[in-house]
Structure formats: structure tokens, C-alpha cells
């Protein structure tokens, strides 16, 4: 099924637009610069020839995006593990609502895994602030990214939100294509993953039925992604520290580009993705809540609970908790792992020309907060972490 004309300003490229966009992509100097770094052993002419024959989005992902993403992950991580994908029916479409740690890779890793499992990849929400030039825009829209405009005037926000909501519903229910969207606007800077109530309200704007019948058909799948090391941890900690000091943080497109490059190329250690239980079985209970704001908060809390429960904790998380608060989890890591983690944090601060002592607390909090959130999940004992 084709996209509706009403969504032309939002949607990714259609198959009929792919070849023209690919030609722009491969003729730009950025293409050689990026691909030579990722595939130093490959001939640029052969790669360009292969891409010139691409006619569909699916073929573009197969020829370009999957091998590129897999090579990046192989070079910058110690492996990608996953669980919960047995909850996904390949014949159905889902709304993956995910915690958000990396600008590009959170959704990319999900789609790499889906591709390897033979399941259709998702469309991905991307903020227009990240589309820093036409080359990046072409790359994003070729790779099934749809655009979320971050600069809508307040008087137009409701109308725009309705359009975005309708697009999400149309894509999932009519086009039978899954969508990935972050649980909040922007990445989590402090490691405290919480779903924004406003996001859920936006998603429901296009529904004209009751609460259950609006949300259940979307098959909301909470997703948790956890990186052993966050390549952007110092950049995030610096932002948190500035806000705590009452200093305004004004980010430029160059800052976003630096974060994208650091996130893609930086060391991640082990990475884990977990798909939580689809939320529809609880929506009947939430439907009985009378106040609409309380309904939205109950849904947000349910998604958060499943994200926190699914989140994979690494030794670094326990080390950070013990260093920041009190020693409770020393049986979850070794002395050598603790020393390695502190050495890593100091080196990261040095790499970004930051003062480790000034950023120590926000850095540790970033890694410790997932432990705190897991402890809050009802009925979870420390022994189950």
C-alpha cells in the first residue's frame, strides 16, 4: 500500500524515488569518505555500481545499510545479544517504544537483528534537527526514517501532532509496517529511562475510539537496549552538569554530528536488546481509570516497568552504583572490572578534554540509574538482578 499524499513531508522515500536519491548519495564526496573508513578493502567503483542498480528501499538496506551497520557493530562492540524476539510475530506490525541512548544505533541495531532473523525492518522516527545536510537526509529517508519536526510553532503543534499520530497509525495498521520510536524526545542523558506522557498522548490523537481500541491495535512492544559502555557518556555528563549549574545548553548541528559520529564509532563493549511483553493485555485494566492524564501515566508506567525489567545490567552498572551510593553489589563484579571501569571513565574524560572530577558524579549516575530503576520494579529482589 502506498503512502497517503498527506504524509509527504514526513515519510521516507518510496521505491520510485530510490534510484534518484541513491545517485545523489554516491556522487557526493561524503560517500567516499565514509565508505573508505567502513570498507577499506572494497572498490568504490564496484560499490557504486552495485548501488546504482538498486531500485527499492529493501534492496538499499540489503546492499548498503545492513553490511555497513554490521561492519560498524563488529568493529566497535564485543557482540550483540538479544532476547524477547520470540514475542514478535513476523506477520504482524508493532510499535516499538524504546529507551533512547544513541542517536543512530538504538534503532539500527534492532533493524540489524530483525534483518538477520528474516523479519521486515521498522520505520524509524528521526528528529529534523539531525538532518544536518541533504546527504544525511537522503541516507535517512532511504533507510526508512520518517521525520519528526522539532521546530513547530506552538499554535501549530496540535495539528502537527495529529498528522504525526495519523502517520504512525496508518503505517502500522494500513501499511502493515512496524515503527520504532524513542520513549522521549532526545536521548536519556542521565541513564534514567522514563516514557514521556506527551508521546503517548500524541500517538493516541488519531484514534477515534475508546482508550483500549485506540492503543491495543498498535501492539506496543517495549524495548530496552543497554550498552556496556556509552561512547557519548562524557558528552552527556557535561550536558547534565551544565544544567545542574544553571547554565543553558545550546546545542548546534555540529554538536549533534559529533554525538552521532562518537556513538557510531566509539567503543561500546557488549550490547543487549530485549523486547518486553506486548502491553495489550494490561490495557483493559488501564481503560477503567477515569482521569485521562492518569490513564496516560499508567500506560507510561507500564512501558517503563517492562523496559526496566528487560534492561540488561553489566558489571559497570553495579560498580557505578556502589561508588555513588553504598557498596551493595560487590558480588556482581571483580576488583579488576572495577579498576578497568574507572580507568575507562578517566580516559574518556581525557579524550573529550573534560575534567573527570567535575563530571564524576553525573558519569556514575548515568551508569547507576538503570540499577535503581530495576530495584524499583515491583517484586524484584536484589538477587534477581
Automatic annotation (TrEMBL):
One of its GO terms (biological process) is D-glucuronate catabolic process. The keyword S-adenosyl-L-methionine does not apply. GO terms for molecular function: acyltransferase activity. Residues 279-306 form a coiled coil. Residues 84-186 form the Phospholipid/glycerol acyltransferase domain. Keywords: Acyltransferase, Coiled coil, Transferase. InterPro entries: Plipid/glycerol_acylTrfase. This is Phospholipid/glycerol acyltransferase. The lineage of its organism: Bacteria, Pseudomonadati, Bacteroidota, Cytophagia, Cytophagales.
Amino acid at each position: 500500500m502506498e503512502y497517503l499524499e498527506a504524509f509527504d513531508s514526513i515519510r521516507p522515500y518510496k521505491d520510485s524515488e530510490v534510484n534518484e536519491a541513491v545517485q545523489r548519495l554516491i556522487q557526493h564526496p561524503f560517500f567516499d569518505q565514509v565508505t573508505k573508513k567502513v570498507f577499506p578493502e572494497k572498490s568504490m567503483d564496484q560499490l557504486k555500481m552495485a548501488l546504482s542498480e538498486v531500485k527499492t528501499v529493501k534492496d538499499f538496506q540489503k546492499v548498503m545499510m545492513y553490511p555497513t551497520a554490521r561492519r560498524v557493530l563488529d568493529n566497535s562492540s564485543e557482540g550483540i545479544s538479544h532476547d524477547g524476539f520470540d514475542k514478535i510475530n513476523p506477520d504482524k506490525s508493532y510499535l516499538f517504544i524504546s529507551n533512547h541512548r544513541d542517536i543512530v544505533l538504538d534503532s539500527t541495531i534492532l533493524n540489524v537483528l530483525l534483518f538477520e532473523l528474516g523479519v521486515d525492518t521498522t520505520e524509524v522516527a528521526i528528529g529534523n534537527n539531525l538532518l544536518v545536510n541533504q546527504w544525511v537526509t537522503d541516507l535517512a529517508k532511504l533507510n526508512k526514517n520518517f521525520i519528526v519536526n522539532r521546530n513547530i510553532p506552538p499554535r501549530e503543534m496540535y495539528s502537527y501532532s495529529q498528522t504525526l499520530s495519523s502517520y504512525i497509525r496508518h503505517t502500522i495498521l494500513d501499511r502493515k509496517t512496524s515503527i520504532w520510536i524513542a520513549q522521549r524526545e532526545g536521548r536519556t542523558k542521565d541513564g534514567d529511562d522514563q516514557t514521556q506522557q506527551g508521546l503517548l498522548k500524541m500517538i493516541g490523537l488519531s484514534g477515534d475510539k475508546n482508550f483500549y481500541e485506540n492503543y491495543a491495535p498498535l501492539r506496543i512492544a517495549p524495548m530496552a537496549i543497554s550498552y556496556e559502555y556509552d561512547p557519548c557518556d562524557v558528552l552527556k555528563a557535561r550536558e547534565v552538569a551544565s544544567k545542574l549549574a544553571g547554565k543553558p545548553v545550546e546545542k548546534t548541528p555540529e554538536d549533534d554530528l559529533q554525538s552521532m559520529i562518537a556513538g557510531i564509532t566509539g567503543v561500546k563493549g557488549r550490547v543487549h536488546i530485549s523486547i518486553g511483553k506486548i502491553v495489550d493485555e494490561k490495557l483493559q485494566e488501564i481503560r477503567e481509570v477515569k482521569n485521562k492524564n492518569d490513564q496516560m501515566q499508567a500506560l507510561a508506567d507500564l512501558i517503563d516497568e517492562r523496559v526496566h525489567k528487560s534492561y540488561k545490567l553489566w558489571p559497570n552498572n553495579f560498580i557505578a552504583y556502589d561508588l555513588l551510593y553504598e557498596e551493595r553489589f560487590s558480588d556482581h563484579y571483580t576488583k579488576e572490572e572495577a579498576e578497568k571501569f574507572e580507568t575507562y571513565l578517566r580516559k574518556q574524560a581525557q579524550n573529550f578534554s573534560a575534567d573527570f572530577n567535575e563530571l564524576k558524579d553525573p558519569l556514575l549516575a548515568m551508569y547507576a540509574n538503570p540499577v535503581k530503576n530495576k530495584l524499583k520494579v515491583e517484586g524484584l529482589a536484589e538477587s534477581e538482578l
